[in-house]
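Problem 12. The chain below contains 474 residues. Write out its predicted structure in token notation.
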Amino acid sequence: MATRYDLVIVGMGSGGMVGAEFAATLGLRVAIVERARVGGDCLWTGCVPSKALIASARAAQHVRDAHRFGITVPAPIVDRRAVWQRVRAVQAAIAATDDDPERYRAMGIDVVLGHARVSGANQVEITSTDAAGLTTTALDARVILLCTGSRPAIPAIEGLTAYLTSETIWELDEPPASLVMIGGGPVSIELAQALNRLGVDVTVLQRGPTILAKEEPPLVRLLHERLTSEGVDIHTDADVTSVSTVGGRTAVDAVVTGVPRTFTADGVFVATGRVANADDLGLEALGIGVDEGGIEVDDRGRTAVRSIYAAGDVAGRLLFAHSAGYEAVRVVRDAFFPGKGTVNDVIPWCTFTDPELAHVGLTVAEAEERHGDGVDMWRVDLQHSDRARADGSTLGAVCVVTAKGKVVGAHVLAPSAGEMIHELALAIRHDLKLDDVAALVHVYPTLSTAIGQLAAESAFERAKKLRWLVRRDR
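Solution.
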């Protein structure tokens, strides 16, 4: 007889772990199934290793830039093998603490290892291998939540057989001395800058007209200039046609702005998007829609079978760890509390280059398409930030998009932009105007003061219209 649970979660990555912990605090009986390593993409192939790598790369760059601050030191000697060892040490520390399965068992959550298939509206079958061989068990659940994530999408390019991705590069002892990176999205651009700073010769081939196509164009241009000034070789409008091996090295053929070119390196890195891990879950037999974007869900995270939900990358929304965790919590709220929940909300994100590029809400073009007239872009460059001047980090800007005065989008290119974006996300979520942001006193001198400066400009313009009300001496 199958064990009965309130909630069975499939996938123990960012979404599954957060959803399970929240459900456990409600006193629900929870099981979570994982077929590989606890922690998912974020811990093993995504956020954690890439940010650990970026930290090492930033340290190397600080040494190179020390002369700008009146400090003379020798050029950094980068040991890329040691950098990779540090990345693994950071992962191991998290796996042994916050992402340890025993931590979840201590909460009363049953952690089940094996491959899961949904065999009914309220049942999950688990296949696992142990000393007795292949075994299958069944878990009954009031609600099933699928959090199986995504994996790198591999384009159909002639000869593309040996390549690195965001999953496999961390399996190396150290990176190749040179790389051609196919794709110009956040994964590629973050790693391109970091690897370049660690001495890897990096070429980026982006099929479209710009890198980071979802971001505000003026800020992307500034970041593009920074990357190329550091030595990252970026080519846009580059259509890769074939890959081959020449003399033990990898040759990548591409048509760049209409001109055939060949780029040669020690390896090729593919970062051309993600595909949902929605196959082999048994969903089609239940009438649950699955397409290229992932599992089809409504705005409550429900599939066509109302007892089965999906959250995170596999549901094809925003592919971020923080978004997955948020969606999983909202699903639990919808399934077990009165009323209806929704997974739609204002989700900020950040590309962790140096400077960082953070984004929330609409770009100018999106705002004009949605709201028509009355859209304004407010911008203050970091050259006008006293803190940025003192820190020697004046490349960047804060841009806020308003529609009839209300904040509908915000974009920050700055050191720690990912930390700065949240007050602007809150402004969007609560339909605030820039005048409301101006009413908040910002600590001086901080980079966030730039947000206050920008908001003050809006308030000052409004005040000009009311200057006839000013009391004057008679």
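Discussion. The chain has a mean pLDDT of 94. Students who got a different answer should revisit the alignment rule from Section 12.3.
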